[in-house]
Amino acid sequence: MGLDFIFDELSSLKEHALMREYRTVESAQGPYIQIKGKSYLSFCSNNYLGLADHPKIKQAAIAAINQYGWGTGASRLVAGNMTLHEELEKKIAEFKGTEAALLFPTGYMANVGALCALVGREDIVIGDKLNHASIIDGCRQSGATFRVYPHNDVSQLESLLQRSSIYRRRLVVTDSVFSMDGDTAPLPKIAEIAQKYDVILMIDDAHATGVFGQHGKGMIEHYGLEGKVDIIMGSLSKAIGSIGGFIAGSKCLIDFLKNKARSFIYTTALPPAACAASLAGLTLIQEDTSHIDKLWENIKYLKSQLSKFISNIAGESPIVPIIIGSAEDALSISKRLYEKGILIPAIRPPTVPLGTSRLRISLMATHSKEDINRLIDTMKDIGFLTHGNTIHPKAGYAQTDVG
Ligand SMILES: *Cc1c(COP(=O)(O)O)cnc(C)c1O
Question: Which of 58, 117, 132, 379 is geometrically suited to a Cys-Cys bond with 384, CB 3.0 to 4.6 A?
Fold first, then answer.
């Protein structure tokens, strides 16, 4: 007995093609990465703008290390709070158009910390069924009553709100861009409903920050919803090319979270060099939107190429999923692509619902048109993309005969 159950559970994962294993990247995170000495064309990074190894970001981090060293040695509230944390928070608030912002070591911690601070036993939190795991964990840990509505179903959201007036506080939370489907939430409608029922609205802008909106500021800018969303969560680890998470909102909200968010209070402050890298990433986006333009060109191009073979390609973002169905099939296609030097992960349960295993392509601004052509050609080579094939990807459902 004792730990025997682990062996059984691992065997079961293997048997169902659900065992997770990682590969070891031996190079910087660009469109080409090296694994076991071989170069692979990667379509699986959230480094959407290619900033993770941008010279300006590297220089900023190096300069910060030279000035401030690496570690911070304490929580922000003890003695870990440094100039660069505050500069970055100011920059994030400016970028997001809010009064203030609060940094967390990761986006995961921002979601969990904020949700647990804002709602508790007497409250209800209502979220989209496909919200990110960090939101779900925050909702569960908060102790609040937790209800989900079917993906992007605003009428169900409204009906949950109509039936929830007994709670002390009501908070609605949604991803702005859904991480495994690449589609977007109908935020204008959700904001309208939130206002109508006078409830707190929180959005997770992790995949939209640096990607959506004319200046890459995210979904608020994209939809012109300034002032309509109470709590904007974001990540610096994706398009910004760095590490860290944040909450942006009113000064009052930020003061509250500084005092109440446990994942902010009881953890060590981010290294100043990480803040310097984030600052450089945000500055770069502010000064030059060409990376964002290039990313959207790539998205358009890939979708136009794929649509020759696949009807209604999901994804309105750099995340372009192709729903396969079974975990075995998704894994087998992913493996065959890997053998041809292309890296696209098979996303399987529990990350996505059973029967909706998928290839999740993510694009970067640093991909060239040739890279995308090579992806399409390789998919044809392995017999995955063929004319007349009946792939009808639709988020949330499985249906394909590809094997
Ligand atoms: C990645 C992600 C997070 C977590 O952000 P990290 O900075 O990686 O911890 C939160 N929400 C969504 C929707 C994400 O995709």
Answer: 379
How many CB atoms are closer than 10 A to CB 196? 10
- Residue 374 belongs to domain with CATH number: 3.90.1150.10
Domain containing 26 equals 16-45+289-381
Distance 236 CA to ligand 1 centre (A): 9
Residue pair 394/312 in contact (Cβ under 8 Å)? The answer is: yes
301-335 tens-digit pLDDT? 999 999 999 987 877 999 999 999 999 999 999 99
Query: Dihedrals φ, ψ of 44, to 5°?
Result: -140, 30
Distance 179 CA to ligand 1 centre (A): 8
Same domain as 26, residue 91:
no
Catalytic residue, candidates 238, 291, 294, 367: 238
Residue 90 bears catalytic tag: no
> Closest by alpha carbon to 251, among 132, 100, 377?
100
Return the residue whose CA atom lies nearest to atom 14 of ligand 1.
206
Rg (CA), the chain: 21
Q: What is the mean pLDDT of each run of 10 residues along the chain (403 residues)?
A: 91 88 94 97 97 98 98 97 98 98 98 98 98 98 98 98 97 97 97 98 98 97 98 98 98 98 98 98 97 98 94 88 93 96 94 92 98 97 76 40 28
C-alpha 388 chain-centroid distance: 33
User: Based on the structure, what is the number of domains in the chain?
Assistant: 2
From 111, 132, 240, give the residue whose CB has the most ligand 1 atoms within 8 Å, as the site to mutate: 132
Q: For a pocket test of ligand 1, which of 179, 180, 264, 360 has the largest count of ligand atoms closer than 8 A to its C-beta?
A: 179
> Among 294, 351, 288, 349, which Cα is nearest to 318's?
294
> Considering 54, 96, 132, 207, which one is annotated as catalytic?
207
Q: Which member of 134, 179, 263, 317 is catalytic?
A: 179
pTM beyond 0.90: the answer is yes
Ligand 1 binding site (Cβ under 6 Å of any ligand atom): 106-108, 111, 132, 134, 175, 179, 204, 206-207, 235, 237, 245
Active site residue 238: yes
Instruction: Write out the H or E segment, with its range, that includes residue 284.
Output: helix 272-287
Helix, strand, or coil here: 200? strand
Q: Is 389 a domain residue?
A: no
Contact 142, 169 (CB under 8 A): no
